[in-house]
Specification:
The complex is a heterodimer.
Chain A: H1 31-61, H2 64-73, H3 75-108, H4 114-126, H5 129-140, H6 147-152, H7 161-187, H8 190-197, H9 202-231, H10 234-240, H11 250-259, H12 263-290, H13 292-299
Chain B: E1 3-12, E2 15-25, E3 30-34, H1 41-49, E4 56-61, E5 64-65, E6 76-79, H2 91-100, H3 110-123, H4 139-151, E7 157-161, H5 169-186, E8 190-194, H6 197-203, E9 206-211, E10 214-220, H7 221-226, H8 231-236, E11 241-248, E12 251-254, E13 262-263, E14 270-276, E15 281-283, E16 291-301, E17 304-311, E18 317-323, E19 337-342, E20 346-349
Parallel strand pairs in B: 3-8, 3-9, 6-7, 7-8
Antiparallel strand pairs in B: 1-2, 1-4, 4-5, 9-10, 11-12, 11-14, 12-13, 14-20, 15-19, 16-17, 16-19, 17-18
The chains are: A mainly alpha, B alpha+beta.
Chain lengths: 301, 376
Amino acid sequence: MRPQIDHSLLDPPKLPFEPLIQRNAVITEQPWVRWILTAGALAFLMAFLLLPLVAVFTEALRGGFKLYWESLKEPDALVAIRLTLTVAAIAVPLNLVFGVAAAWAVTKFEFRGKFFLITLIDLPFSVSPVVSGLIYVLMFGAQGWFGPWLAAHDIHIIFAVPGIVLATVFVTFPFIARELIPLMQEQGTDDEQAALSLGANGWQAFWYVTVPNIKWGLLYGVLLCNARAMGEFGAVSVVSGHIRGETNTMPLHVEILYNEYNFAAAFAVASLLAGLALVTLALKSFLEARHGAELSAAHRH
Amino acid sequence: MDIRIRHIHKSFTGFPALVDVNLDIRSGELIALLGPSGSGKTTLLRVIAGLEFPDYGTILFGAEDMARKPVRERRVGFVFQHYALFKHMSVLDNIAFGLRVQPRSLRPGEAQIRRKTVELLDLVQLGGLEQRYPHQLSGGQKQRVALARALAIEPRVLLLDEPFGALDAKVRKDLRRWLRELHDRTGYTTVFVTHDQEEALELADRVVIMNRGCLEQVGTVDEVYEHPRTPFVFDFLGGTNVLDAEMRGRMVFLRGAEQPLVTDIIHPDGPADLYVRPGDLRLADPGSPGIEVHVSAVQRTGPIIRASAEILANGTGVSIELPHLHHDAARFQAGATLRLRMMQFCVYPRAVAAHAHPITDAPEPTAAESRGRTRA
């Protein structure tokens, strides 16, 4: 007699190898149609994404490497670079905490006013950055609500670093929360409940179960948030006051140089900003490549 | 661990999910909560676990009232329908999780944790797979790991929420059989939720049938199947014919029939419903009372012959099932006129849907489902 098979012990079936390019009657068009569509898409990408990037670097290096180096070494430029990095270093960790807390609250709990909170998280996306900046001027400016009190206590927010940080935090708030909310909604609460039923406390459930489940989404959110924090122009422009060598961030510095017809220097600083963006992208790609197996494992069910 | 549930109420924004639920779960028992979706069975399980809190009522684990304690203090093993394995942890780490999160003073040493984990893996017959990740396991294997993980904390009660719901038919059947064996071997008090009556009847010592947040009936598999207390229970446990009948002078008459069908000394005079399963209808002996029917169609599905027929007295349709090797099978031909007898049946007076048979070992009845005659 054939031995009895217990189907609940069997390994999952090995799926056949999936070729990278699949031919499928539904998606396969005539060759000339495919060529035209592909070429069109590529041309568009080149013209709108790659070309500007190349242009920034060529313009920056037009006057030679020495001039490029001089414009970056200039004291005002160095201050702008330092200020931009400082603001990002404060704003990104703050939004990391706020974003995770907001996403956690929205997705793992039911409470009154949840819908309102979700709308509120989206507010910075829907409001023009200039308006965001003006809100802070209205509140903390010399004629603002808290202006007299701040002046009396010699606290400077507008036209100073705290204002720039506040405006940046406001504008970049949705990036991490928005990245995490759909992910955590899809994951549901079963894993956390399982952890609690096994005796874990809230912190243990958060650190050992929730954080590993969301780490890739979180990283992606942090990178996007960082890119925006370094590049933010509108809101920062309103609150910074453009004091050279003091409250000028890199994007503001680029604008000033450009308005002064100092194209070489403007493009040099701009190229640095673009370089930071490229580093961000490279970092993300590197992490994805390195932990690709884990990443896809997390998305498999 | 004996569990006594007393007067549990729970509602979700006005919708009553549990209405005055009383239930005793004996130590070592394997009990099924059975009911259609929305009947409150999962809510009851989650209330026992501490994943939901009742609006009022008590849940005694032994002598200790747990109704207000959070899940982490109850030491219950909870198994989810979709496994809820931690995806980023190996099988070994998943099972060890409950031991590793214990406070330092109570936590066993790493070597001991490892030994216990390997033991549990052997118990669920997955020895050697400790380094795998959940995505490398089949559904049946995942549910076994989930079970081992729940058992690692030596739970006072094992709670399973539709544990076979996400599995293929064959896997489900094998896992069911294995779970029964495991229960017989380990003796954990176990409560599981299912909407599949076959699963409940096959696996459980006792079955709790729920409807609209109330317990309709609690009993052994035989009790609930042979003596369904309400039309709902009768209908839920299998195929059902509902025949229009009337009680007159301690006799049951089919509507439109001149001759009484059977005597019944329990129910008062008045309109009633007669519930009989398709498999409980057989040919009547010549001369004895029966239901005259006209067979309209006969169909064979595997080892079962199904016939559709119409009652001559009132035109109601009935379905009949009998094994294909039965000696009467040949007489069920389309167009034939036959007289049937009922081997088992229940009478439910229509005015108050009440008991078919008095049942002693059961809590007080709750308002029963009125007329459920969807299944034919």
